[in-house]
Design brief:
By secondary structure, the protein is α/β, with parallel strands linked by helices. The protein has two domains: about 150 residues, 3-Layer(aba) Sandwich (Rossmann fold), CATH 3.40.50; about 150 residues, Rossmann fold, CATH 3.40.50.1370. Bound molecules: phosphoric acid mono(formamide)ester and norvaline.
């Protein structure tokens, strides 16, 4: 049973589908103005080592709509574990709040936080993974292409980065076909690729050939060429990734009803052109909206208390 949300690999296919159903239900309630204070009086601590628009606003609005509130800890000046150890941060937060969300450089920092905290920990992006993004995107994908992922092909065009890696993990649980088209040297981590190959029910491909990746694609997904923390590689990356720009010509090589997805923020004129971002196939702001609903589902699932006032994680820890 789910205690933390660190990687999609920690979830079964049914748990992912359960979260998506809950996200749909919370979205319906939110839109109809039906109160859903499922986390009444609970507090979420939010740790940010990196900037954010969507994650910051959707988690803070989300916990408020669920009847709780957020404390934003600006950690942009020092990394988690620098001022005091990660286990000690966990042991402190444990005594005050009901859940913690962390966006860090080091993936290990979030893993360590989850290990040492008896409150649930949510990965809100690390250098390695961005599972909240992909859960919200899966909700968006279902809305636009129906409930069954198995007949769909997602072509991820660009960098084999944290968002791409989370799509590979998703494909290790649900039968989505995923192809990454990237320049040589920018593939998704070998271990992530191998894990997806081993567990996937759909087809997993890594290629440098854009045309074959786009053929029969239902989804064209891209992300920035320069992720947060890679700014020094900016010039080099702009040169190397230029052929991978998602523009009208490239979109035309996919299925005629393919959708365009991007986690945002976008660098217009680099990985995507304005006409694609703002065009009829783009669902990027639906993705942004669903960050709210999907993350509310994650918080409800992890932080909901039983009759003794214990979350599932805390209850499990008491047993040992
Ligand atoms: N997509 C995403 O995580 O956006 P932010 O970096 O603005 O939170
Ligand atoms: N790959 C990007 C995603 C931003 C939401 C980054 O890590 O900066």
């Amino acid at each position: 049973m789910l205690h933390d949300f660190v990687t999609l690999r920690d979830l079964t296919a049914d748990e992912i589908l359960g979260l998506l159903d809950l996200a749909d239900d919370l979205k319906r309630r939110q839109r109809k103005g039906i109160a859903h204070r499922l986390l009444d009086g609970q507090t979420l601590a939010m740790i940010f080592e990196k900037p954010s628009l969507r994650t910051r606003v959707t988690f803070e609005a989300g916990i408020f709509q669920l009847g709780g509130h957020a404390i934003v800890m600006d950690s942009s000046q020092s990394r988690l574990g620098e001022r005091e150890s990660v286990p000690d941060v966990a042991r402190n937060l444990d005594r005050w709040v009901d859940g913690v969300m962390a966006r860090t450089f080091s993936h290990e920092a979030v893993v360590e936080l989850a290990e040492h905290a008896s409150i649930p920990v949510i990965n809100a992006l690390t250098d390695k993974l961005h599972p909240c993004q992909v859960l919200a995107d899966a909700q968006t994908l279902r809305e636009h292409k129906g409930g069954d992922f198995s007949s769909l092909k997602l072509a991820f065009v660009g960098d084999g980065n944290n968002v791409c890696a989370s799509w590979f993990n998703f494909a290790a649980r649900l039968p989505l076909n995923v192809t990454l088209a990237c320049p040589k040297g920018y593939e998704v981590e070998e271990e992530i690729h191998a894990y997806a190959q081993q567990h996937a029910k759909g087809e997993i491909v890594v290629t440098h050939d854009i045309e074959s990746a786009l053929k029969d694609a239902d989804v064209i997904y891209t992300d920035v060429w320069i992720s947060m923390g890679q700014e020094e590689e900016s010039d080099k990356r702009k040169r190397i990734f230029a052929p991978y720009q998602v523009n009208a010509k490239l979109m035309a090589q996919a299925k005629h009803d393919a959708i365009f997805m991007h986690c945002l923020p976008a660098k217009r004129g680099f990985e995507v052109t304005d006409d694609v971002m703002d065009g009829p196939q783009s669902v990027v702001f639906d993705e942004a909206e669903n960050r709210l609903h999907a993350q509310k589902a994650i918080m409800v699932e992890l932080m909901r208390k039983d009759d003794d006032g214990l979350s599932r994680k805390r209850r499990a820890r008491l047993k040992f």
